[in-house]
Design brief:
This protein has helices at 9-58, 65-149. It is mainly α.
């Protein structure tokens, strides 16, 4: 029996490959975002711990102005780092959004090819069924004609 061969199978394979690559790229970006978020959380914990230490231990009793000045510089430096880190995360989020849109586009293109393949397969299957019916009809007509003429369809005489 004949088998269906999709003429654009190579294009479909390529589109599947492109979609997988874009999934991989999106996954890497999302992993980067997770790592950046972890770093941001650690920085926030360090700032909170420093502020807690200041409130709990440094503001009672004699004040050490040098320590308070150093703490203030530390907090300003951490604030700058947090701002820069948040900007990096914002840029990374934009890249993630672009990558996600690219993945959606690749998936849509793959699905278009799959739908085309399915339609061509259905048309091929209908054509195969039509040919099979035509062959069966031909065999039936010959058998009926031979029966009407009293000829045995099994004989090989000329």
């Amino acid at each position: 029996m004949a088998q269906f061969k999709f003429p654009l199978a190579a294009v479909l394979r390529h589109r599947k490959h492109v979609e997988q690559e874009r999934q991989r790229a999106l996954g890497e970006l999302e992993n980067d975002m997770t790592a950046q978020q972890r770093t941001l959380d650690e920085m926030n914990r360090a700032v909170a711990a420093s502020a807690q230490d200041l409130r709990a231990n440094r503001l009672t009793g004699p004040l050490n102005l040098a320590w308070l000045t150093a703490h203030r510089r530390y907090m300003l430096g951490m604030q700058r780092q947090l701002t820069a880190h948040a900007q990096k995360m914002s840029l990374l989020q934009r890249r993630i959004d672009e990558s996600r849109a690219s993945l959606v586009d690749a998936a849509r293109q793959r699905m278009v090819m799959e739908k085309l393949r399915d339609r061509q397969h259905q048309a091929w299957q209908e054509d195969q069924n039509r040919r099979e019916l035509a062959q069966l009809d031909d065999v039936t007509m010959r058998t009926a004609a031979w029966a009407a003429l009293g000829i045995d369809g099994q004989s090989t005489e000329s």
